[in-house]
Amino acid sequence: MINQLVENLAFACLGGQERTGLSETSAFEWIHADLSKELFSYSQVNTYSNKIANILKNLGITKGDRVSIFLQRSPELIFSFFAILKNEAVACLLFSTFGESALIDRLNDNGTSLIITKKSLLKKILKIKDALISLRTILVIDIDEHLDGFTLSLPKLLSNSPGDFKYTPMIEPDAPAFIQYTSGSTGKPKGAVHVHGAISSIEQSFREVFQIKEEEIYWCTADPAWITGLVYGIVAPMAANVRQIHFAGNFNAEHWLNCLQNEKVNVWYTAPTALRMLMQEEEGFFSKFDCSTIKRIYSVGEPLNPEVYRWAKRIFNCEVYDNFFQSETGSIMIANRPGIPVRPGSMGKPLNFIEAVILDNKMDSARPGSQGKLCFKKGWPSMFITYLNKPEVYAEKFSGNYYITGDLAVEDKDGFFWYISRSDDVINTAGHLVDPFEVESSLLEIEEINDVAVIGAPDAILHEKIVAYLCLRNNIEWSRELELKCRLKISNEISTTAVPQEYKIVSVIPKNRSGKILRRVLRAWHEGTDPGDLSTLEEQ
């Protein structure tokens, strides 16, 4: 049976406006870090992405090739994403905070042949280029001349690139479109592969959850390298022809409130971490801004604490809707949304086209109110199709007809779902999933450190903070200099988001007899509680 063709994601976002005479309407307003603004129409985005698409084609990028974008938030990031899709290549967006080790892992895993970056990030790539097995070309968005035959100036190439590009608007639904990396409790990061057919889930979830009217203005604060920022900051609003803003700067309470006020934002999609950071401000701070245009706030990335929910609802005088999805699911699965009464602390109810269940350890349905594994009946269009190069790990994520999220949750008698915790050891810090194995591996390379274990601990701002337990080599004392050395190594090799907030010096790391770190013991140490059964503890 032949699958029915679907729209190429690029065409879904840019082609409809051409057909309906809306090509000159605003695709997005770009607010720079200094609060200056640029307005980009759909026609401009289409033309810029066509120019880059032509460049990629001339550089040998073809169907199925992997192209990575290593940029901070910028219009060029968006243009490049669509250019990759127009070539039927596969896009991979990487956080600009990634260090050398994190880049090598991901770029080699996905076989990146071309990287799009900027001058300030170029030195990271050049330092590791000999270790990148598939890399052929680097495109730099802000240099005027080619550095050599390997490192090319995008502006120079753009000056001679045509603004038209012929590509196939309809495509097989299972054609890969982008790769989203996510960490697990052990091993290397996993690349979840998403397809062009995801567009139906993306569009349907956007309509059902956000319910944005034609006159409303939308702002998603998430970085595009995060699944939320890509799907609900770029693809969904542009496919729906929603008026939106993007802010290039990092979190700054005054700048964010200025954006909300000056752009008259109506629908705001952010994260609990951002709301908790805003909570640190004195209440008088908010009286200086008029944010009365905000009608709805949405939150994602980690559980929205009832305390934060009540604070945001009171300060902004509107409803706050928490929701749940993962890099693997590709779109929102469970959500609070207009038409369903909010129960503070709950993730809400599954979307109309999603079947969510709580299963026990035997993979049988759990009773209402009983904690179990949060699972989804497989087959929704935005479901990832594999972990790149890890089919056996992908297979482990499914049991019969169900996808296993790796999260523990409860469904109450009224069908509301309540998040409990991760069932593995992944740390959710400020909405970013951090693999403790990666952090531990990096710290163990420091000569002063003999052994290490990393856990996540509750934090009022970050949801979870990263805590590193260290065993130092003989005659080594902990110092500010050694702490700085640890911080710099993690920041440079993995990411600034993976840098531990606390370091604790211990004589031994608790492990079982097979050598597995007993993180529950470390969490008990941190919280000052009973670590429970220690019968499997390795003799030290």
The CATH topology of the largest domain, please? Answer: Rossmann fold
How much of the residues is beta strand, in percent? 25-35%
Tell me the CATH superfamily of the largest domain: ANL, N-terminal domain
The global form is globular
> Any idea of the CATH class of the largest domain?
Alpha Beta
Helix content: 25-40%
Provide the residue-averaged pLDDT: 93
Low-confidence stretches: none
Structural class: alpha/beta
Find the count of extended strands (DSSP E, 2+ residues).
29
* Distance, first to last CA: 61 Å
- Sequence of strands across the biggest β-sheet: 3-2-13-12-14-15-16-17-18
CA radius of gyration: 23 Å
Please work out how many helical segments DSSP would assign.
Answer: 16
Q: Examine the secondary-structure arrangement and name the CATH architecture of the largest domain.
A: 3-Layer(aba) Sandwich
Tally of discrete structural domains: 3
Question: What summary fits the major beta sheet?
Answer: 9 strands, mixed
Can you walk me through this structure?
This protein is α/β, with parallel strands linked by helices. It folds into three domains: 6-16 and 38-195, ANL, N-terminal domain (Rossmann fold); 197-422, Rossmann fold, CATH 3.40.50.12780; 427-527, 2-Layer Sandwich (GMP Synthetase, Chain A, domain 3). 29% of the residues lie in helices and 25% in strands. It is built from 16 helices and 29 strands. A nine-stranded mixed sheet has the order 3-2-13-12-14-15-16-17-18, with helices on both faces. The longest helix has 17 residues, at 42-58. It is globular and about 65 Å long.
